[in-house]
Amino acid sequence: MANQQGAVPSVPGDDLASLRSACVKVTCEDGTVGTGYLIAPDKAVTCEHVVRRVKKDGHVSLSFFDGSIHAASVERVDASTDVALLKLGPNVPSVAPLRLVGDVERHQPFELVGFPQQMGGHHLLLSGRVHDPVGRDNRGASAIVLYSDMVAAGAGARMHGYSGSPVIVNGAVVGHLRRVLIDSDADRASAEMGLVFATPGREVLRFLLADAPPASAPGPAQPPGAAYQSRWYVSRPDCERRALAYLEGPGSPAVLYGPRLSGKSWLLKHLENAWQKKWPQGAVARINLLEFAELASLEDLTRQIAYTLVDELGGHESWFGTYENGKGRASPMIRLGAMVKRHALGGDQPTLLAIDATDAILGRPYASDFFGGLRAWMQKASTPPWDQLRLLMAISTTPSRMIDNPQQSPFNIAEPVALPPFSAEDIAQLSQRHGLQASPRELEGLHALTGGHPYLVRRVLFDATLAVGGTRALALEPESEVFAAHLDSLRHFVERESLAELLWAVLREPTTAVPPDQEDLLKKAWLVRRTAANRLEPTCTLHREYFTRVLSRVAPR
């Protein structure tokens, strides 16, 4: 569900204060009590059975965590999935809404905040694990089955008031609590086996998208491939949380890994902003190695980086003198390190060095020396002022193939943060931000066709905003002109790298043996992915159909 700008902000999984603030106690005129959660500044979700007795155009009271109470009207309900959408009035507290997602994995830990009647109106935190993400409740309805030791130890009757509580996994809402399994054989109402049931997030999202009014786009639609703009950024909470965790302390770089056009540069910039909010007095320097990819020597590269650091950090030209000192006696990376140590570090707060397109120099004779130098900086983390350096890098090449000597590689110090494609929910939210009224079926078709490739999704949505005559339909045919430039570029890449015969073999037989360097090239271009069954398959229907058609014409008979 979009907020007033069409976005659904995410809440960090460990930010309990934000979770509490976004949860409200729902009180009906007949005394029924439940829990709701904000999914937009003026919208909240709860269970349909909580507000079932509210008359048409009637109101409920929402008690916020700050103690204020505000009226809300029941806008829409769906008894089959036990979802109700509440419309809040004006002047409600400014609270960061929660982010909804459609899927969750088994055994994931969850937490939720509810307002059980036994607590006299106060909130109570509940935790446990996902027992079955695609289960059924005792009435046969689709449900996420949750297990909690806290529920198993308590009385089922005391769960009254928890209905509508958002189930939080990895900082996002995966569903909301709707029913507890009561042990009918017990002397008192108890929760049998500690099991409770939640309406799945995918059902909530489907309800919210159905009949939803078109959202207002946050300004002119942004063309795909354009520079980062926060209002068009699609949150990736798990990636953000993991990367920021690596940047929390010294010695472990955060490495963002994903194919071309997967959003690494945007995530890099988003992380810079998030990091700087935490360290407002800290310094940030950004380097894009794509700008220096054609330089012939390590001396040329480090000199350009030195100039860039002076500019990015607002330094003085005298800084460069530190780099020049020792020329002819010390290696370029040692001299660059001396400059970083003397001028970029040593303040009250850490310095973040963000390197985009880090693998752009891969294949250059000096690449290993440069990467080994970065590794050496990280290994000095126990010695001030190197303990103030934080390193964030983005790559499209498999980390293990970035350097020949693992002992010199900065890419294997910490587990790389792999960027996933857009989920169906991400696409739905981005569609709303474009001001489109795409149906759930269209959005599912877009996800299936593109596989959630961020560039392709943005390409289709942007094209729909340019439609003449107001149709604004999504291009869902592989032969559409919308994909022509992208597919033509991929075809030239396959030809240039002599991958046509190999790709054709993979299309026909997923178990085809592929040399690691060529497999990496195919993955880098987002042409194939390796499945859990260790088979290679095209990443999306669009690529499969296009290259099956094109390569079949030139394949050897």
UniProtKB/TrEMBL annotation:
Superkingdom as given in the UniProt entry: Bacteria
Database matches in Pfam families: AAA_35, Trypsin_2
InterPro entries per record: P-loop_NTPase (IPR027417), Peptidase_S1_PA (IPR009003)
Protein name as annotated: AAA-like domain-containing protein
